[in-house]
Specification:
- This protein has 195 residues and is an all-alpha fold.
- The termini are far apart.
- It contains ten helices and no strands.
Length: 195
């Protein structure tokens, strides 16, 4: 594909991301994408044959980061494990509160209907990567005596279940910033060793 075609495809993906974030997955039609991109139907079909293909491309474009690189990045640098975990949770909080271009509802809609193997599910892969990052940060914090935790993997999974629940709540029934802080702090307080 030439450079101009790549730019056009990226443009379509950027516009489609906005449409999916506004309408979810199940309510989006190819006409919605055509209208958002201001291109012909044939022009869109040169790149994508269905909303499903387009949505999966939007998702894969979103989750391109390699798992091992993400874990290594979380453990690099001079910051303490506590500082790195706080930074990680700050980014999760931003994602929970993000109003624009948030694909949470569309992603859950898609994967509640389309059963794919756990290996091919970007939602599961993203969750597992986040769990590994948090687990490594907790292990590092235990090693440096910042944290006390007998089961870093269990704690990491629990924390990410809380984060995922907050993401869904924010898009369905709503959640305040204070509630997010309270729930995340509740989990983190369990890691701080008693003096």
């Amino acid at each position: 594909m030439g450079e101009k075609s790549e730019q056009k495809k990226k443009y379509i993906l950027d516009k489609a991301r906005v449409v999916f974030s506004e309408k979810g997955y199940k309510n989006v039609t190819m006409k919605d994408i055509v209208d958002a991109c201001d291109i012909s139907r044939g022009g869109l079909y040169l790149y994508f044959s269905s909303t499903e293909e387009l949505f999966l491309e939007v998702l894969s474009d979103t989750h391109e980061e390699d798992d091992e690189e993400a874990v290594d990045a979380a453990l690099s640098g001079e910051a303490s494990a506590g500082d790195m975990l706080a930074l990680f949770l700050k980014e999760q909080k931003k994602e929970i509160l993000r109003k624009k271009n948030n694909l949470t509802v569309a992603t859950y809609e898609y994967f509640s209907v389309h059963k794919v193997s756990a290996k091919e599910n970007p939602l599961k892969n993203q969750f597992d990567t986040a769990v590994r990052i948090v687990e490594k940060l907790i292990e590092n914090g235990v090693e440096n005596e910042e944290f006390y935790c007998e089961n870093p993997l269990g704690c990491a999974r629990n924390l990410m279940y809380v984060v995922e629940g907050l993401k869904i709540m924010s898009k369905t029934i709503g959640v305040t910033e204070e509630a997010i802080d309270r729930e995340l702090m509740y989990v983190l307080e369990g890691l701080v060793p008693e003096d």
